[in-house]
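Predict fold of Ku70/Ku80 C-terminal arm domain-containing protein; 91 aa.
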Amino acid sequence: MPEINDETLPDEEGMTRPGVVKAVEKFKLSVYGENYDEESDMGTGKASDASKKQKKAAENGAKESANYNWPDLADNGHVCFLVFQTRWCLS
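Predicted 3D structure, encoded as tokens:
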């Protein structure tokens, strides 16, 4: 496989120029604030409560989805009915 030059990557030499470094630091300061600790934001490798909740919701959705014969529902035009019926029940 031939080597491909990724044109979307930033110019490494240009990114190390003092003016660019200063601009990046100003941007980080304006976005994250003065008390931002980049290393502590990388996490401990443990799943947060939000990610656990999201994973559980995805697993529940996969289980629920397995209860339906999607090709048959699509062929008979019942997918839209099922979606709106479920939404109606949840409201």
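Helices lie at 12-15, 18-32, 38-41, 49-65, 70-75, 79-90.
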